[in-house]
Amino acid sequence: MRQTAIITGAASGIGRATAEQLRDAGWRVIGIDLHDKAVADTELVVGDAADESVLESALVRAGELHGLVCAAGLPPRGEWNDVTEWDALIHADLTAPFHALRLTLPSLRTAGGAAVLVGSIVGAAEGSRRSPAYAAAKAGLEGLARSIALIGAPEMRVNVVAPGAVDTTFDPPALPADDRRDIPLGRMGTAEEIAALIVFLLSPAARYISGSVLRVDGGRSIASRPEVWG
Prior knowledge:
Blueprint: E1 4-8, H1 13-24, E2 28-33, E3 43-46, H2 52-62, E4 67-70, H3 83-111, E5 114-118, H4 121-124, H5 132-152, E6 157-163, H6 191-202, E7 213-216
Parallel strand pairs: 1-2, 1-4, 2-3, 4-5, 5-6, 6-7
Helix pairs in contact: 1-6, 2-3, 3-5
């Protein structure tokens, strides 16, 4: 039987790469994005992933649901103490995934499915002078995932993929992607590398992994004294 996944933020970056890889693995993919740029041979619901009515529309279209990927969100932006930006980032990067999990949990449990949240090493492993709101939201995703993993067990699984620096347009890097002295492997990651782990976590091969956070950062979070902070 063909499996179905909903991916938020499916038009670009990690979300788009995940949609492509799931499609290639034989999944039916329903994306949610503000931009009408669907991956070929997938379906797209155009709208805000933080809007419950948009999520419900995607869920109705999906029918039986086997996978959820929350890749939509806002990058660090604004002044660190801007209250308006705090509210916007927490809503998009933490509250929206909560609603996605809340709405899809019954379907995922029925199908024995899995959810993957796209977090970050910022927040859980690193602080952020630039955006405490982004750091707080991404750290909060880990607590959310562990909690829903307990609520949904044993029928469904929930995990977090926590990337480090990834070469996408989501948050353009200040340093060259292939020359990063702050990363032990010497370069930024790619959206395709992050997507490959997400696809694995949705697969039966990961059926004993739940409530986990998997860092994909080229070793940055284990470096004791990064030479340059990107």
